Amino acid sequence: MEEYCGYCAWLDEKNKERYSSLNRYYCDKRGGYHELTEKGCYSFMKDPEKGKKEGGYQPSGCYITTIVCEILGYDDDCELLTILRNFRDTYLKNNIEYLPILLEYDAIGPIISDNIAKRRDAYRLCLNILSNFLIPCAKDIQNGQYATAIEIYKNMVLKLKEDFTIEGISINENYDINTVGKGRFR
């Protein structure tokens, strides 16, 4: 599995390159500006613990749901996240027809969650996502209405992609089925 600059604790996302149309951020380790999707340097990949610093990258699960729950003050093991993660791991991953959904999520999940976290109105936005998408989705999962839950999820992603003007994400065909759908670039 490859690691990307967007996962590295040394990439300072508060220090964006000025006067450029690209979204590039400064690397405290290598110097220079790098895109989030750029392949990580060997020193970080060889020893990820060496590159970590407080407030840096920590591997995560469902990025969008996790950032929503984090901003709203829910625990990482709250019932909502447990239901959604279990659905991903036991239903979506075991049905090949849903692989495109999981692969897309790997590409856009981190981008959307980063955009949510940077919003001044993040709390209000997260309440909206929670009430209009996540809670109804979890209820449908609990009631065995999986097709409806998947449609709610698709609508949420479509709306967030539109809100944050995200398009043209390339999906890498190299994936590990054990980790797919966890919001990690591949």
Would you write up a description of this structure?
This protein folds into two domains: 5-51; 63-163, no CATH class. It has helices at residues 42-46, 48-51, 63-72, 79-92, 99-118, 122-142, 146-163; strands spanning 11-16, 24-27, 33-35. 29% of the residues are buried. With 186 residues, it is mostly helical. The chain contains seven helices and three strands. Helices cover 49% and strands 7% of the residues.
Features:
single chain; 186 residues; mainly alpha; 2 domains; three-stranded antiparallel sheet; globular
Number of strands: 3
Amino-to-carboxy terminus distance:
7 Å
Which stretches are poorly predicted, pLDDT < 50 over at least 5 residues?
A: 42-61
Structural class: mainly alpha
Mean pLDDT reading:
77
Strand and helix order: EEEHHHHHHH
Strand content: 5-15%
Range of helix content: 40-55%
Number of helices: 7
Global geometry: globular
Radius of gyration: 17 Å
Largest sheet: 3 strands, antiparallel
Count of discrete structural domains: 2
Strand order, sheet with most strands: 1-2-3
Summarize the helices and strands and which ones pair or pack.
Elements (H helix, E strand, L loop, with lengths): L10 E6 L7 E4 L5 E3 L6 H5 L1 H4 L11 H10 L6 H14 L6 H20 L3 H21 L3 H18 L23
Antiparallel strand pairs: 1-2, 2-3
Helix pairs in contact: 3-5, 3-6, 4-6, 6-7
Short synopsis of the structure:
By secondary structure, this protein is mainly alpha-helical.
